[in-house]
Structure formats: structure tokens, C-alpha cells
Design a protein that fits this description.
This is Threonine dehydratase. The protein is an alpha/beta fold and 313 residues long. The chain has helices spanning 5-15, 28-34, 52-61, 65-70, 79-90, 105-113, 125-139, 150-156, 158-166, 181-193, 209-216, 240-247, 256-270, 276-287, 289-292; strands at 24-25, 37-42, 72-75, 95-100, 117-121, 142-143, 172-176, 198-204, 248-254, 296-301.
């Protein structure tokens, strides 16, 4: 089911009072390097440091009063947990966040600092899902999936909606692909608000399940998840996948060294702190220069929650 134009526009109005309208920045040097005119939508400046605040705030606002009173629950190793905790705090709602024991301490502490009620589990998806289901049963809380919930997806798309309002002549928007929420939302925004604007996904070669799913027409999985782009290790879901299949034009895969090189360029040339996942779309643009030559290209810089003690350069 493809949400309507109305739903996409309403999400934009709904999230606006609670999120930063992040800047769109350009770099003459990066334009020259890439051969394209590039517009970076800086979600690294978003509240809690990533685009995920948008989906969380949109989804919580759609709940009825009884549901809000019972609270919301999700499982997350970091960014969506922080987003849900902060969004819930802003709206006076309890947020239960199930986190794996392998999650960085800094992310666990951040969720707690935003008022999230944290439960630590074994670092398996099964353990996380079981723990979240228990909270749903015992507290009556509403489960919100980080990327496979329609209200979350449409909320994430408000970054591209703002980008297109600022730059209506874009010919392409490049988005990273992990769980599929951001690219599905971006594709919806481009479909309704772009002027013949194509959406292209970018994905690490090491976790190329979305690329394979795009080719096979069914959701695929990864045998391993060894990539520096730790935000892109998750799989597509049954709600976002049909939107991606219908509205995304291509998915480009990039190698680890290409991600690191693109990340370093953005840090050095634009003085922007971005996490590795954010560098993946720019790496894809550099890899496929011919495809994007002389085009107006938007890039979603998805977040800036990077561990400074663990930089790849």
C-alpha cells in the first residue's frame, strides 16, 4: 500500500514543531570532484543526531490517548532507541527501549538520559523481540518498529520533503539503505513532490541484501554483517519493501574503502561530523560519476552519531 500525497504532506506539518529543519549545504570542491551539483541534507544536525527523530515523533503522535498513556516500546542498538526516548519525552509518553548487551555504553546512557526505560538483553534479534513482546503484554505499550512501520516510514520521509521544498529542481536523491525506512520515506516524498526526481539507494557491498532483494523481488538476508556502516546492518521489511520496489529506481553498492574515503572527504572538506552510514550515498555518487554527471543531486546525510575513539581514518 503506497500512502497518499496527503499523508506525506500531513507528516511534514506534524513533525515540524518537534524537529530541526536541518540545513542543506553545498561544496564547490565536492561538486568538482563528483561532476554533479550536490546538495547535502544535514540530518547529522538533527535532534539526537540522526533522521530517526522524525519517524519516532510522527508515529507517537498518531496514537490515541489510551495508547499514549500505556507508552511505546521498540528494540534498538542505538539511534532509533534514542529517537523514540526523546520523542516520547517531548510528548509526555513513556518509552521502553530494549537494547542488546553489545550496544555501545554511550548509546545506552543516551537513551536513559532522554528518559527511556532500558531493558538489556542477549545480543540476538530473537532475544530483543521476545523482550519487547513481554513489555507489550505486561505494560500494554504499543510496539513501534524502527523501519517497518508506515507512520515511522512517512515520518522519515520528511527529511526529503524539506530538501525538495528547498531544492525543487533535484533530478536525483541518494539515500543510504539499512532497514529501509529512510529510503522508502524518501521515495514517497520524491514521488509526490519531486519534478521527475529519481531516488537511488546506496548500500555497503558487505551487507547488500537490499540490492539483492531489488533484483530478486523478494526480501533477502545477509549471512554476515561486517561493515563499517553499522547503521545499515538491518534488513528490509514487508511494509517498506513494496514501496522501495515501486518507487526506487536503483541501488548502488560500495566497498568499505570507498565509504571511508567519502566519509573522510566530507569531514575534511565540509567540516561535517558524519557517521560511516551517512557517507555511503556520497561514495555511491563518486563511484557512478557518469550516471550523475552534470545532474542536480540531493544526498541525505543520515546522522552524525559517530564514536570519536573509533574513527576509520
Amino acid at each position: 500500500m503506497i500512502p497518499s500525497r496527503q499523508i506525506v504532506l500531513e507528516a511534514g506539518k506534524r513533525v515540524a514543531p518537534f524537529v530541526h529543519r536541518t540545513p542543506v549545504l553545498t561544496s564547490r570542491l565536492l561538486n568538482e570532484l563528483s561532476g554533479a551539483e550536490v546538495f547535502f541534507k544535514c540530518e547529522n544536525f538533527q535532534k539526537m543526531g540522526a533522521f530517526k527523530m522524525r519517524g519516532a515523533i510522527n508515529a507517537i503522535q498518531q496514537l490515541n490517548e489510551a495508547q499514549k498513556k500505556a507508552g511505546v516500546v521498540t528494540h534498538s542498538s542505538g539511534n532509533f532507541g534514542q529517537a523514540l526516548a526523546l520523542a516520547a519525552k517531548n510528548l509526555g509518553v513513556n518509552a521502553y527501549v530494549v537494547m542488546p548487551s553489545s550496544a555501545p555504553t554511550v548509546k545506552i546512557e543516551a537513551v536513559k538520559a532522554y528518559g527511556g526505560l532500558v531493558t538489556i538483553t542477549e545480543p540476538t534479534l530473537e532475544a530483543r523481540e521476545k523482550s519487547a513482546a513481554t513489555i507489550v503484554e505486561e505494560e500494554g505499550a504499543v510496539f513501534l518498529h524502527p523501519s517497518n512501520d508506515l507512520n515511522v516510514i512517512v515520518g522519515q520521509g520528511t527529511a526529503a520533503l524539506e530538501l525538495l521544498q528547498d531544492q525543487p529542481a533535484l533530478e536525483y536523491i541518494l539515500s543510504p539503505v539499512g532497514g529501509g525506512g529512510l529510503i522508502a520515506g524518501t521515495a514517497l516524498a520524491a514521488h509526490y513532490l519531486g519534478d521527475n526526481c529519481s531516488v537511488v539507494g546506496a548500500e555497503p557491498m558487505q551487507v547488500d541484501d537490499a540490492y539483492r532483494a531489488f533484483k530478486s523481488g523478494k526480501i533477502e538476508y545477509n549471512a554476515s554483517a561486517e561493515t563499517i556502516a553499522d547503521g545499515l546492518k538491518t534488513n528490509l521489511g514487508d511494509i517498506n519493501f513494496p514501496i522501495i520496489m515501486e518507487l526506487v529506481s536503483d541501488i548502488i553498492r560500495v566497498e568499505e574503502d570507498e565509504i571511508i574515503s567519502a566519509m573522510k572527504l566530507i569531514w575534511e572538506r565540509m567540516k561535517l561530523v558524519i557517521e560511516p552510514s551517512s557517507a555511503v550515498p556520497f561514495a555511491a555518487l563518486l563511484k557512478e560519476r557518469e550516471k550523475f554527471k552534470n545532474k542536480k543531486v540531493g544526498i541525505i546525510l543520515s546522522g552524525g552519531n559517530v564514536e570519536l575513539s573509533n574513527l576509520p581514518f
